[in-house]
Design brief:
globular; ten-stranded antiparallel barrel; mainly beta
């Protein structure tokens, strides 16, 4: 069983590879894929994602991030996604069955990611909120199922 730092143990059930249908910007049918994999001897979790058009198979977006704990023990995530660039996200209060992380990018744009698991189902939503007035846009919604363990992680560990 891979080691995880104590603050990341709650994400152990998330380790592995997930895939399922979703929508981008509320209208484009996609398949989403996300993988959670422990790295740096369990001090962090690498999170990679991919979205491709359900009709054409064209890649519409991908991202990579590294999750760890901040000094207060809350989740901190450094991520980079095509079309968005790099952003540092911090955990915000949310449903105890999941996690919400958000950060502010250039131009006072707030980016929020929410993930919730229920058994073998992982639901992902992302939202971009612009400026102080809070004009917002849903970017991603997907419901995925586990399709395999994380690379180097045995099932059930």
């Amino acid at each position: 069983m891979p080691r995880l730092r104590p603050e990341l143990e709650r994400f152990r059930p998330w380790l592995g590879h997930w895939r399922g249908p979703g929508k981008l910007v509320g209208k484009i049918e996609v398949f989403m894929e996300i993988e959670f994999r422990p790295i740096f001897e369990g001090e962090a979790i690498e999170v990679t994602s991919l979205a491709w058009d359900a009709q054409s198979g064209q890649c519409l977006g991908n991202g990579a991030g590294y999750w760890t704990a901040d000094p207060a023990g809350k989740l901190a995530a450094a991520i980079h996604a095509i079309g968005m660039g790099a952003v540092l996200l911090r955990e915000v209060p949310d449903d105890p069955g999941g996690v919400a992380i958000e950060g502010v990018m250039a131009g006072n744009v707030r980016f929020t990611v929410a993930l919730v698991t229920e058994g073998e189902t992982l639901t992902l939503t992302t939202r971009r909120t612009e400026g102080y007035t809070g004009n917002s846009e849903d970017l991603t919604f997907a419901v995925m199922r586990r399709i395999g363990p994380a690379e180097g992680v045995l099932p059930g560990t």
